Amino acid sequence: MKLLIDTDPGIDDAMAILFAARHPEIELVGLTTVFGNVPVEIATRNALALVEHCGLAIPVAQGAGQPLELPPFVPPAHIHGVEGFGHLPAFTPARQAVTESAAEFMTRLAREHPGEITLCPIGPITNIAEAIRLDPEFAGNLKRIVFMGGALDAPGNISPFAEANSYHDPHALEVVLRSQAEILMIGLDVTMRVQLQAADFAALAEAAPHDGGLLDGMAGLYLEFYRSIGQEGCALHDPMAVIACLEPDLFEIERIGLTCIVEGEETGRTLRHAEPAQSAAALDCDAARVRALFLDVISGA
Ligand code: BDR
Ligand code: CA
Question: Which of 206, 204, 208, 223 is nearest to 86 (CA)?
Fold first, then answer.
């Protein structure tokens, strides 16, 4: 499966990218970056560092530094850290991003491989909205979009109503949801059901020092954040979107129209929408198998 990940790394983004890089059935064809957990320049640096860490020779294209219409915002440092990877110091990758923007890169890639690219946005979905506006054929050229974001029946994680990615660019999510793309939403309804604890990261570090050790090094701050909201483990948000690209049967999926509220106190809230659409949302999952798959792939089992 040819997979393009649009990302704001970010600790769980790193987990998702390592999973994609190590899974034998995934051909990771590139990374595009967006603001979110960190400013976009740091997201790009971190994406390049992850590509180097994995020994891949794939392009990284930098995308949007701010939402389509909402004012720019300063990422909070207490979840992913100032540099994006928890308490780890800033990485200094040798390679640079390509000169194409994220939207230019993804539209070209989809045009060159019509019907083959699965696009997996795991940050605010701004770049995908920009790509849809840039190339009217883009949505139709993709195989499908599987995005991490939104919450239908589950409560929000940045407001009582909204998940963080949809909250940070609800206008972009509306553009994507109104496009002709085949869309699967992996939101908090499922991602809060799979969690990793400190002992899981320690076990990964022991089994696979290179990859597990990196994630274990990042996880401390993330786990501290979850502890501060009363949870002993961190959610597997972004890796679950990648897992859904590969193993949709691990999820209970409902085919429904979707919409996102773009203003007021419910900004970023995702809702079911009467209009027929090519969209679907995951409402439940086989948490034990999702968790086992992630741990197996990272530990090289
Ligand atoms: C999403 O928000 C970000 O903090 C995570 O990386 C994930 O993409 C979860 O709401
Ligand atoms: Ca993310």
Answer: 223
What is the C-alpha separation between 94 and 71, in angstroms, rounded? 32
Task: Confirm if 122 and 160 have CB atoms less than 8 A apart.
Answer: no
Ligand index nearest the alpha carbon of residue 155: 1
Instruction: Determine the residue type at 209.
Output: P
Q: Which residues contact 36 (CB under 8 A, 6 or more apart)?
A: 8, 10, 43, 75, 123, 124, 164, 165, 168
Q: For the chain, first and last CA: distance in Å? A: 21
Q: Indicate whether this model's pTM tops 0.90.
A: yes
CB atoms within 10 A of CB 292: 13
Q: Which class would CATH give 2-299?
A: alpha beta
Q: Is the CB of 169 under 6 A from ligand 1?
A: no
Q: Which numbered atom of ligand 1 lies nearest the CA of 123?
A: 8
The predicted-structure confidence for 65-123, as pLDDT tens digits, reads as follows 999 999 998 898 989 999 999 999 999 999 999 999 999 999 999 999 999 999 999 99
The residue ranges of every structural domain in the chain are 2-299
